[in-house]
Design a protein that fits this description.
By secondary structure, this protein is mainly alpha-helical. It has one domain. The chain has a three-stranded mixed β-sheet, with helices on both faces. α2 runs parallel beside α11, α4 runs antiparallel to α7 and α7 runs antiparallel to α8. The longest helix has 37 residues. The chain is elongated.
């Protein structure tokens, strides 16, 4: 087993650091979001497979190979210590448990939101009789925009259109699916939590820009700031439209649109590809060891 089996973990740290640092500078385009999500997927897959390879050593394979090598007068390079294999197995089990938990929570939340929508009259807009300000896009066939009377009461007609345009953008661009993928990646590899937060911010910014294209940047910023100030006294308010870095989003809407910088998301994608390449190299090394120990 070569050192490449440990590289995915090291590259995960780099991806987390750069993801956190570059998130405010990334233009919220669909290509950027997909690039960051793709980097997270590659990184999560690479680290998970590395844990699988390390866990396999608990079957005694490495020790048998080392004994066989000693008999042949060959010294194996970088054998995996048993402690590392145990730790890898524990981390792998924990990753599976966290991923299942995330999927179950998302499924339960989706069922609850769809139940709320079914209690409302048919149509794209589902209005719930709650005083707390909420607005969220509920994916489905068809998707619906769920808002509360509390949010509608605090906004005028033009500002309501901003909220609707924002949530429609989430549905149209399938942001829920992208968020789900990166949340599972972060559950599998907790070092990707900053990347998960970066994607959550980027999809909100992308929806803000869609709304601004429909209603204007000044109106979109005003609607977001007004709703955020009104819901400041609600600890659970602001679901959907008012989540994830409202001050930064308002500031971005008050400024000129960001120009795409392909090098930044491209750099994150390269890091993700690096973890996959390292995992492949570790797999090839493992395969060569199997062939050497058990020819034919």
């Amino acid at each position: 087993m070569t050192v490449s089996v440990y590289l995915p973990a090291a590259l995960s740290v780099l991806l987390a650091v750069f993801g956190r640092a570059w998130a405010p500078r990334l233009a919220p385009t669909r290509g950027t979001v997909i690039s960051v999500v793709g980097a997270a997927m590659l990184c999560a897959a690479g680290t998970t497979w590395a844990l699988v390879l390390l866990s396999v050593t608990l079957l005694g394979f490495t020790s048998f190979a080392v004994e066989e090598a000693s008999e042949r007068g060959v010294r194996l390079v970088n054998p995996v210590p048993e402690e590392v294999g145990v730790l890898a197995a524990l981390l792998l089990v924990a990753a599976v448990v966290r991923a299942v938990r995330v999927l179950r929570v998302r499924a339960a939340t989706g069922r609850e939101l769809r139940t709320l929508c079914r209690s409302c009259p048919p149509g794209e807009l589902a209005v719930v009789a709650l005083d707390e300000p909420h607005a969220i896009a509920v994916p489905g066939r068809p998707g619906r925009v769920l808002v509360t009377r509390g949010l509608l009461a605090m906004l005028d007609g033009a500002e309501r259109r901003v909220v609707l345009a924002h949530e429609r953008a989430h549905l149209r661009d399938r942001h829920h699916g992208l968020r789900a993928v990166v949340e599972v990646c972060a559950a599998v590899n907790p070092m990707l939590v900053p990347v998960r937060e970066a994607v959550a911010f980027l999809v909100e910014r992308a929806a803000d820009e869609r709304a601004a294209a429909v209603s204007g940047r000044e109106l979109a910023a005003r609607a977001l700031a007004k709703a955020a100030l009104a819901c400041s006294g609600h600890p659970h308010g602001g679901l959907g439209f008012l989540t994830r870095g409202v001050p930064a989003r308002v500031a971005a809407l008050c400024a000129e649109p960001q120009r795409p910088e392909p090098l930044l998301p491209g750099g994150l994608l390269v890091l993700g590809m690096g973890t996959a390449v390292a995992a492949v190299q570790a797999t090839l090394a493992f395969h060569r060891l199997v062939e050497w120990w058990w020819p034919g």
